[in-house]
Amino acid sequence: MVTEAPPPPPDGPEAAAGPVQPTTEAFVEVQASAEFGELRRTYRSFAFPLTVAFIAWYLLYVLLSNYAGGFMGTKLFGNINVALVLGLGQFATTFLIAWLYSRHAAERLDPKADAIKSRMEADA
Fold first, then answer.
1. CA angle, 33 as apex, 28 and 37 as ends, to 5°?
2. Does the N terminus or the C terminus of the chain have fewer Cβ atoms within 10 A?
3. How far apart are CA 76 and CA 124, in angstroms?
């Protein structure tokens, strides 16, 4: 539910210590700014391609599991087959993407977001 009424003031000792909240107009202005657009572009240029690549990799694994049973059952060494290696590769890929995103966010997203946040809090 969207209203034009401001939120109620907080009660207790944390009310005096909390940061002043920017107005709705300030949020809309920041959202329309070139700096915020650059932040979104930086996020999307990393997240969307990796998401598409991971989904394609996952679907390839599922399709191979369903329609290429002979290939997936090929033993590589001992009781280790192609399906097991590719399945473990799914886990490895997930952790790799999470690690890459963490580095990307720390280096490129967080400084831009912190600058926008600091400016909004200073203007409020």
1. 105
2. N
3. 63
| CB-based contacts of 66, cutoff 8 Å, min separation 6 | none
Could you write out the three-class secondary structure of the chain? Answer: CCCCCCCCCCCCCHHHHCCCCCCHHHHHHHHCCHHHHHHHHHHHHHHHHHHHHHHHHHHHHHHHHHHCHHHHCCEEECCEEHHHHHHHHHHHHHHHHHHHHHHHHHHHHHHHHHHHHHHHHHHC
Q: Which residue has the higher pLDDT, 83 or 7?
A: 83
Residues in CB range of 104: below 8 A, 6 or more apart? 46
Cβ within 8 Å of residue 40, ≥6 positions away = none
Q: What is the pLDDT of residue 120?
A: 86
Residues 6 or more apart whose CB falls under 8 angstroms from that of 73 comprise 81, 82, 83
- Mean pLDDT, the chain, rounded, equals 89
